[in-house]
Design goal:
Layout: E1 3-7, H1 9-15, H2 17-20, H3 28-39, E2 45-50, H4 51-61, H5 65-81, E3 85-88, H6 92-98, H7 110-122, E4 126-127, H8 131-139, E5 146-147
Length: 148
Amino acid sequence: MSRLYVTDTDSIISFFHNIFGVPQRLSERARGMIAQALLTSSSEVKLSIPSVVFMEIFEKWFITEEFSEKLRYEVFEIVRRSPNIEIKPIEQEVLEKLLKIGGNLSRHDINDKIIVASAMMLNCPLITTDGEIIDYIRTTPDIPSVLN
């Protein structure tokens, strides 16, 4: 039986840290989950990446044509071709869950809240390095757990 996880933008950037030129911040366990889904054709780990993750990456990292091409081929195409990964659109149920997010995330970035709402909708763990999201998940029963 496969396990489904939702990943956020920071997790994808951290996993591909060598391409983005940033420090790797994921735990070994979280990194292993992403690697298992990405790098094996039949995996017990499945990832759901909300489409807003790539919107954030494209907005912040498509700074030169050369780097945009690098991201396209060394990140996006690898993710897109993996049979264990889905890029999830923003669905009505995600928007309904979004309205329920409060607490310390009430004024948080809308993209992060959409990612949290996606994990709520799918009722699966979220892979994130965002401390505020981790604190929120620990206070709500709507998301089973968090990996960071």
